[in-house]
Automatic annotation (TrEMBL):
<dbReference type="Pfam" id="PF00199">
    <property type="entry name" value="Catalase"/>
</dbReference>
<feature type="domain" description="Catalase core">
    <location>
        <begin position="45"/>
        <end position="142"/>
    </location>
</feature>
<protein>
    <recommendedName>
        <fullName>Catalase core domain-containing protein</fullName>
    </recommendedName>
</protein>
<dbReference type="InterPro" id="IPR011614">
    <property type="entry name" value="Catalase_core"/>
</dbReference>
<dbReference type="InterPro" id="IPR020835">
    <property type="entry name" value="Catalase_sf"/>
</dbReference>
Length: 320
């Protein structure tokens, strides 16, 4: 593919990185208010994460093994052909308050990859290919509406983003929020892009390798029970794949609501070896952010750039 076809750039809210950062700080304060609202709604004396409040599965010692035939341009930093890296894994429900695993919801996967010589690289994903919102401004508006009275949600959303965007957002939320039979059978998408060294922008995905049927467990912690029982029968594996940027039309950087039109390239296998590596409480205490990353990798797009300020504010609230 010609070099000019892979030209990409970022567009900053307000016309500059400085103006955008001022907006992000305001969004972070508003999301802290959402966090407090969720705590009041749950009857908790302490704030949870603003979103993904419930850790369903916590893994302290999984392995991320990179393919021996990893394409040369994707060999960046510690992510190189044949590398085997230790990973902490958090699988979660997306709601801002802990609730039963049997309820319809979006699911999340967060990896904290330990790097040789120190440092970590966090990779965050959710169980739907695209975000329900296009940018951080929409995200905060929808989060505030979701933390308020449900009876007023639709008219408030129309007032905030317009009728057409409201219909699109509500449709995406309904498709993404569903019951899950097993977190081991879900696929998880980054939805936003990151810079992958000289390979340029990519989106990434985890997809199940061994889709053995689930044996659903009911109750508040049904998905936790199912995952633990599955691990007792053998390892759980996922394939990590990436999509590379092609063009702004097919693979936009700034719009998180658009699914990329580009092929997937498998790059590594994530293996959770057995129930002995489960430690939900320890992993629940970890803070994950796409901005925990080494040189050569950088979150891209408005939603990802906003996460630096918003995640830091959320972590300060629930880790007190």
């Amino acid at each position: 593919m010609a070099v000019e076809e892979r030209a990409w750039r970022e567009f900053f809210e307000g016309g500059s990185a400085e103006a955008e950062e001022r907006s992000f700080q305001a969004y972070a304060r508003r999301m802290r208010d959402v966090q407090s609202a969720h705590a009041r709604a749950s009857g908790s004396a302490v704030a949870h994460r603003t979103l993904h409040a419930k850790t369903v599965v916590g893994v302290i010692c999984a392995e991320l093994a990179f393919a021996a035939d990893l394409p040369d341009e994707l060999n960046v930093g510690a992510f190189v052909a044949g590398a085997r890296l230790n990973v902490a894994v958090r699988l979660s429900n997306a709601a801002g308050v802990p609730r039963a695993d049997t309820e319809p919801d979006l699911r999340g996967a967060a990896l904290k990859v330990a790097l040789p010589g120190g440092g970590v690289h966090d990779l965050l994903m959710t169980s739907y290919p695209v975000s329900h919102v296009r940018d951080a401004k929409q995200f905060v508006a929808v989060a505030e509406i979701g933390a308020g009275l449900r009876a007023l949600a639709l008219p408030r959303m129309v007032a905030a983003v317009g009728l057409r965007e409201t219909l699109r957002i509500v449709g995406n939320l309904r498709r993404a929020s569903r019951r899950s039979e097993s977190l081991a059978l879900e696929s998880y998408w980054s939805r936003g892009a990151i810079l992958w060294g000289d390979a340029g922008p990519v989106r990434f995905r985890l997809s199940p390798v061994d889709p053995a049927p689930a044996v659903p467990a009911e109750g508040f912690d049904g998905l936790k029970v199912e995952f633990r029982e599955r691990l007792a029968r053998g390892p759980v594996r996922f394939t990590l794949s990436v999509q590379r940027f092609v063009s702004e039309e097919r693979t936009p950087i700034e719009d998180g609501a658009v699914e990329w039109d580009a092929p997937w390239t498998p790059v590594a296998t994530l293996t959770v070896p057995g129930p002995e590596v489960l430690d939900d409480e320890r992993v629940h205490g970890m803070a994950f952010s796409p901005w925990n990353r080494p040189a050569g990798f950088r979150p891209l797009g408005n939603l990802n750039r906003a996460r630096r300020a918003v995640y830091a504010a959320s972590a300060a609230g629930w880790q007190k």
